[in-house]
Amino acid sequence: MSKPAIDLKRMNDIIEKTITTIDSGRKEIFEIAENARKECERIKNELTSIQQKISLFILEVEQLEREERRAKAKLMMVSKDFSRYSEEDIRLAYEEANNIRIKHIIKQQEEKEYIGKRTELEISFKKTYEIVQKAEKLVSQVGVAMDFLKGNLSDIFETIEDMNKKQYLGIKIIEAQEEERMRVSREIHDGPAQSMANVVLKAELCEKLLSIDINQSKQELGNLKDIVRNSLKDIRKIIFDLRPMSLDDLGLIPTIKRYTDNFIEEIGINVEVLVLGEQEAIKPIIEIACFRIIQEALNNISKHSKAKDVLIKIEQNMDKLSIVIKDNGIGFEMDKQNRNPRVSGFGLIGMKERAELLGGKLDIVSVPGEGTKIILSIPLERKDDLYE
User: Fold this and answer.
1) Hey, how many other C-beta atoms are within 10 angstroms of the C-beta on 128?
2) Is the Cβ–Cβ distance between 111 and 57 less than 8 Å?
3) For residue 380, what are the contacts with CB-CB under 8 A and spacing of at least 6?
4) Which of 23, 109, 132, 273 has CB atoms 3.0–4.6 Å from 36's, for a disulfide?
5) For 32-58, what is the mean pLDDT?
């Protein structure tokens, strides 16, 4: 009877030491991420400064080009009319044209050097940002391990079998949450945030051009308007990906049709949505799960299937919601996928997990050269309080 207690104490000691080691490593990884993030910020600020200088160089080069053309025209005129201009006039005109040409060349070289610096900084920023991403991913994964190790171990022998079954699913859910946060952060950084920075630069350029070249200023303002419009489009897309508001306002079917219409327009793959029977209101958690599964399925089709047509059939009865997603793409070998589910990535795994969390079932049938069919069935009522 004393053996399990001794084993449990020893296990607790091992886990406590493991936690201490992992926590120390997590702090070091976090410091690396923080230092890399600060370096990214420094490079970003330097890039902004260099871009501003390049914008000024562009204006100065354009001004010198105009002055050089004027000086050349004057030199040509003086050189041709010996009756009106002396050799001294010709010499002065030549020196003026030559001095402006030299200034123009020097300014062009300075502009070229700053453009080279900007390119180097952009490459450095990309590499540093990759370090930040990898470090953040490691921190997230270590955090998952810490959460499990710090859990209550008093009944570990009674629950070890159940933990083995749920561990992978739990880790994937937490990792999916962290990866989704990182994805949204990256989309905002690479999309709207970059656009807003560009807006500031364009606005400053327009401000300088107003007193120099009105037509060029109008053109830049037009470009500025396009940047703001595209930025607004990116923000709306991010909001829609986070949570389609039309699910709350219109329901599942209209939201799917709206999404597939956009999918057809952007990807070029034809999608037909076939709704059978009368559609009644279902719980929001089921709606969002079904929408995400369809969204992931279409994403996989666009990336891997080479399909031209997709059929989505939705049928609701008294106790369950059934969805079939079928494409005419290249398909894949089911035996290989069953032996190692990771060969198809975590997309299919995530779809199955969503269905299983709601007490449903998701089956995948695929034959090379004959396309793929995804069959989803989710109960509309459950005995437990999952939805309460």
Assistant:
1) 20
2) yes
3) 282, 283, 286, 316, 318, 319, 320, 321
4) 132
5) 83
Please give the average per-residue pLDDT across 104-128, as a whole number.
Answer: 84
Contacts of 337 (CB under 8 A, 6+ apart): 343, 344, 348, 364, 366
> Alpha-carbon distance 179 to 239, whole Å?
16
Supply 269's token pair: 């793959």
Contact 137, 182 (CB under 8 A): yes
Please tell me whether residue 372 adopts helix, strand or coil conformation. Answer: strand
**CA distance linking residue 308 with residue 327, whole number of Å:** 8
Residue the block writes with tokens 């969002």? 288
Q: Picking from 19-23, 61-65, 335-339, which range would have the lowest pLDDT averaged per residue?
A: 335-339
Architecture of domain 243-379: 2-Layer Sandwich (3.30)
Question: Do the Cβ atoms of 135 and 29 come closer than 8 Å?
Answer: yes
Q: Where are the domains of the chain?
A: 2-241, 243-379
The token pair at 364 is 């995948």
State which amino acid sits at residue 327: D
